[in-house]
Design a protein that fits this description.
Helix content: 40-55%
Strand order of the largest sheet: 1-2-8-5-3
Order of helices and strands: HHEEHEHHHEHHHHHHHHEEEEHHEEHEE
CATH superfamily: Cytochrome P450
CATH class: Mainly Alpha
Number of helices: 17
Bound molecules: protoporphyrin IX containing FE
Radius of gyration: 22 Å
Number of strands: 12
Strand content: 5-15%
Length: about 450
């Protein structure tokens, strides 16, 4: 970790606009210019310390030093994350809620979401055979909305699929400072929360009875540390937190499809899947491509680190994208090399696309396991179960857009299904057969 003393300051008085304009390049270009993995700046008028790399992430995810209360920018509460949910909680309140989220993620339920998503994908692929061109990312968004709502126990009507998909995408695609995208996402959040409040009330009053292992049932019946039901608004925000983020996966699935196209040798390796190659491939897609730029927290109590005085309530920003590509942790960090995961030691702090540290103790993403499983299954499906061509299109992606995506949203044509059913993906994993019945409820 490079630390210059005294800790340098970014050249601009307040970096908010530079962060919005430079996106994923902002932190890395300042670190390069200033020759330091720690630098000071101001964000939205507040003094902020930006830190990058594995050692920085291990500090950032140490609950002794940081809290989340008041750290999240207001616009994100109105759009992506909501007000009062798990992201802004600390201490026992956070642990209690986190246990609720992780209780949804049993091995059986992870297999369920994989199966539901693959079955939706397989049904869509039959339609793609009749279409001239398919905008893959948009199709994947509908597939994931259908699957995750089903998984979460939400009563999604066929007539609502388009609306709910658009709302979820708007909420996920909202964190870059564009006024138009902010407005769309804020309206989407209001609509989703209103929908969820009705569902939660119906569950609590016994009118609607989803299975007890679903997110809808679990959140509606969850009792806080005070022994009472979550208030209706908080319950709606946290129920949304249990399925909305699945739409983030559509961005990484589009990037994965791009990687299969741009690194054609990966296609055969995915088909053979030796040494669980599809897992390594999914991991590299999550490490390499830009999705989460940074996370913010506030200092809990004064402390000194690398000679720098972190003062209580100071804003600290962890460079997520830069940590995933930090040269201290990764060889040839700016190259796409799935095999790097073959001997990876699995540090919880060098690869933090979905947060770092321990899932149970800290704020690391509750949906990380399902993200990896769904991505891995989709990449296998794209290479084993269908064939397609990739017509000329703009496959570039903009590092100043947050979140980023292939500009064309990845268009495919001439889709042909190569297998009648997706059983090769659902019921055979690494040469072992899985009993179908054990995964149906
Ligand atoms: C590409 C997919 C995803 C990405 C990039 C992603 C990213 C993240 C990030 C960066 C955090 C915050 C870490 C922190 O606060 O330090 C987070 C937290 C969280 N994610 Fe995800 N996520 C994804 C998928 C999912 C899925 C599929 C779910 C559930 C269905 C989910 C549920 C959550 C929850 C509940 C939290 C809050 C955890 C806490 O505060 O303790 N995420 N995620």
């Amino acid at each position: 970790m490079k630390v210059k003393t005294p800790i340098p300051r970014a050249k601009e008085l307040d970096s908010t606009l530079s962060l919005i304009n430079e996106g994923f390049n902002f932190m890395s270009s300042r670190r390069k210019e200033l020759g330091s993995d720690i630098f000071e700046t101001r964000l939205m008028g507040q003094k902020a310390v930006c830190i990058s790399g594995e050692e920085a992430a291990s500090l950032f995810y140490d609950n002794q030093y940081f809290k989340r209360k008041g750290a999240m920018p207001k616009p994100l509460k109105k759009t992506l994350l909501g007000e009062g949910g798990i992201h802004g909680r600390d201490g026992e309140e956070h642990h209690h809620l986190k246990r609720m989220f992780l209780s949804m993620m049993t091995p059986e339920r992870l297999e369920d979401i994989k199966r539901m998503a693959i079955e939706e994908l397989d049904a869509k692929a039959s339609q793609w055979e009749t279409m001239d061109t398919v905008v893959l990312m948009e199709e994947v968004q509908e597939i994931l909305t259908r699957a995750i709502c089903h998984w979460a126990g939400l009563p999604l009507k066929e007539s609502e699929v388009k609306q709910r998909t658009e709302e979820l995408v708007a909420m996920v695609d909202s964190f870059n400072g564009s006024i138009a995208r902010f407005k769309r996402a804020a309206a989407a959040r209001q609509s989703q929360e209103a929908w969820l409040k009705d569902i939660i009330q119906d569950i609590r009053s016994g009118v609607f009875n989803p299975p007890p292992y679903t997110a809808a049932y679990i959140v509606a019946n969850h009792r806080g540390t005070d022994g009472k039901f979550l208030d209706l608004h908080t319950a709606a925000v946290d129920l949304n937190n249990s399925y909305r983020p699945m739409l983030a996966t559509s961005f990484l699935i589009a990037f994965g499809a791009l990687a299969i196209h741009q690194y054609p040798e990966t296609k055969m390796k995915l088909q053979k899947d030796e040494n669980n190659y599809s897992h390594m491939f999914a991991q590299e897609v999550r490490r390499y491509y830009p999705f989460t730029p940074a996370m913010a927290a506030k200092v809990k109590k004064d402390f000194v680190w690398h000679g720098y005085h972190f003062k209580k309530n100071m804003m600290v920003v962890l460079d997520i994208f830069g940590t995933n590509r930090h040269p201290d942790s990764w060889n040839r960090p700016d190259e796409f090399i799935p095999e790097r995961f073959e001997n990876w030691k699995g540090s919880p702090f060098s690869f933090v696309q979905q947060g770092g540290g321990d899932h149970y103790v800290g704020h690391r993403c509750a949906g990380e396991w399902m993200t990896v499983m769904v991505m891995q299954a989709f990449f296998k499906y794209f290479t084993e179960n269908i064939s397609y061509t990739v017509p000329p299109q703009d496959l570039s992606y903009d590092m100043t857009r947050m979140p980023s995506m292939p500009k064309s949203r990845f268009i495919i044509s001439n889709v042909q299904k190569l297998k009648e059913t997706p059983d090769n993906i659902l019921y055979r994993e690494h040469g072992q057969s899985i009993v179908r019945a054990s995964y149906s409820h």
